[in-house]
Design goal:
Order of helices and strands: HHEEHHHHHH
Length: 232
């Protein structure tokens, strides 16, 4: 028996305790030290007086975060992500990371998977790439309507329509493939059923990152200028 199922509860409790302590530390820094280097690095939402700006919970952004990204105030940290070449790289890197998540559930070489689990170390690769592609399009895909002009709102909305049409197509292909495989394999053994469930679990985990990242990925392919406010 592998170590992962035996120690999963202990690891989970340890991670939760660590996250609670980390969040408490971050909250203290945020409220007491608005000019702290960590606050500056993460572009936390502060005005000059140290008061938090508006938080858009549904979109997952803050007012100052979007303003800083749109108008280039954070280019010192993130400007290199906004070049057309880097956007193209991230456009292909994100889907590749989703494919690696699925690959990690197989028994092929270098799957880097946990025993008796559909998850693998590849499952962590979409996280930084998703955050990077959001920054590369200056958070336009996540910004609320009131912070964008009419042209950017129309561009963002077209991106969402295109991304979820693509997502619907891919899910339809996946569902049709599973139906066909089941029809051709009426007498599936336990190992075959377990493999299919493991694959579906990996696909579901990849979809967790693909769904929020897809609009930014398509927008990164669409935008031509480094500053979307100047894109014709």
């Amino acid at each position: 028996m592998s170590w992962f199922p035996e120690w999963s509860s202990i690891v989970g409790v340890t991670v939760v305790i660590g996250l609670v302590g980390f969040i408490r530390r971050i909250r203290r820094i945020r409220h007491m030290y608005a000019e702290h280097r960590i606050a500056r690095f993460f572009d936390w939402p502060f005005h000059d007086g140290g008061k938090p700006t508006r938080v858009y919970w549904l979109e997952g952004v803050t007012q100052s975060e979007v303003e800083n990204a749109l108008y280039g105030y954070t280019d010192r940290q993130w400007g290199w992500l906004c070049s057309p070449r880097m956007r193209k790289v991230l456009t292909f890197a994100n889907p590749a990371s989703w494919a690696l998540v699925v690959y990690g559930s197989t028994d092929l070489p270098f799957n880097m998977g946990f025993s008796d689990s559909a998850l693998s170390l590849w499952g962590f690769t979409p996280i930084p790439l998703w955050l990077a592609v959001r920054r590369s399009v200056r958070l336009v895909a996540d910004a609320p309507d009131e912070m964008l002009d009419e042209r950017l709102v129309a561009l963002r909305d077209r991106t969402y329509v295109g991304s979820y049409r693509l997502l619907a197509f891919l899910l339809g292909v996946l569902a049709a493939s599973m139906i066909v495989l089941n029809d051709f394999n009426d007498d599936l053994g336990d190992d075959a059923v377990a493999s299919q469930l493991q694959l579906l679990t990996a696909v579901s985990y990849a979809a967790i990152w693909a769904v929020p990242a897809l609009p930014s990925v398509l927008l990164a392919w669409t935008l031509r200028n480094e500053h979307p406010t100047k894109d014709a």
